[in-house]
Amino acid sequence: MRKLVLLMALTLFSVSCNDKGPGNVKLKTEEDKTFYAMGFMLGSNLQKLELTDQELGALNKGLVDAAKGKKEAVELQIYQPKIQEMFKNRMDKVAQNEEKKGTDFVANFLKNNKDAKKTESGLVYQVIKEGNGTKPSETDTVEVHYHGTLIDGEVFDSSVDRGQKITFPLNRVIKGWTEGLQLIGEGGKIKLVIPPSLGYGKNGAPPKIPGGATLVFEVELFAVNPKAEKEMGAEKKK
């Protein structure tokens, strides 16, 4: 509860603590800009709540009153438990909407991509390149490039954009990856459409991945157990 209250307070800390209103604050100093940057980054955690101007104003009033040492306008003991309840209800609604959009996206993806398939778990995949016969198992380590987007095309993470491949144990990532990467061999490439049950669930991974989000990845598999292969090569040279 304290963490949630602190988050909401910090989120609007960049909002003016005077009577000018949040839309009229000018960023004059480096400290102003620093507080703005902090508020903007933390504010993204509340974006999905779809707060109205009235609700933002009420949130701002509570922050300003507390910062100025004024007496609270409501009885806090009554409203403290309602904060978490309201937050949960709003996020559940967001997750439900995201799941509905994801379901529609999957249906259209399968309809428009005849070679795409759906597994019993709900994972949807499209093999772009099969690769060779060396497919990873769940306990293997893999070296990959990936490009991850939401269903609207917004990029939330991409090793391709960073220009640096990553290596990780296949059983240490989301279920959609663990299942999907076992479908191709080294040198292969696959497109994965991952429902929330195989991704980040109803909670998501804020601020970039909302609760209930369906994720789209293109993953290229370069090597299975690359560390072991390098060690074996070093042994042969000896």
Describe the structure.
The chain has 238 residues and is α+β, with helices and mostly antiparallel strands. The chain has 2 domains: 72 residues, no CATH class; 116 residues, Chitinase A, domain 3, CATH 3.10.50. It is built from 7 helices and 7 strands, in the order ααααββββαβαββα. Strands 1, 2, 3, 4, 5, 6 and 7 form a 7-stranded antiparallel β-sheet that branches. The longest helix has 37 residues. The N and C termini lie far apart (59 Å). The N terminus and C terminus are likely disordered.
How are the SSEs placed, and which strands pair?
Layout: H1 2-11, H2 30-43, H3 53-67, H4 76-112, E1 117-118, E2 124-129, E3 141-150, E4 155-158, H5 159-162, E5 166-169, H6 175-180, E6 189-194, E7 215-224, H7 226-237
Helix pairs in contact: 1-2
Per DSSP, what share of the residues sits in E-state strands of 2 or more residues?
15-25%
N-to-C order of helices and strands: HHHHEEEEHEHEEH
Biggest sheet architecture = 7 strands, antiparallel
Low-confidence stretches: 1-6, 9-20, 228-238
Distance between the termini: 59 Å
- Oligomer description: single chain
What is the CATH topology classification name of the largest domain?
Chitinase A, domain 3
* Shape by Cα distribution: elongated
The assigned structural class equals alpha+beta
Per CATH, the class of the largest domain reads Alpha Beta
Q: How many helices in DSSP terms? A: 7
Helix content: 40-55%
CATH architecture of the largest domain: Roll
What number is the mean pLDDT? 86
Radius of gyration: 23 Å
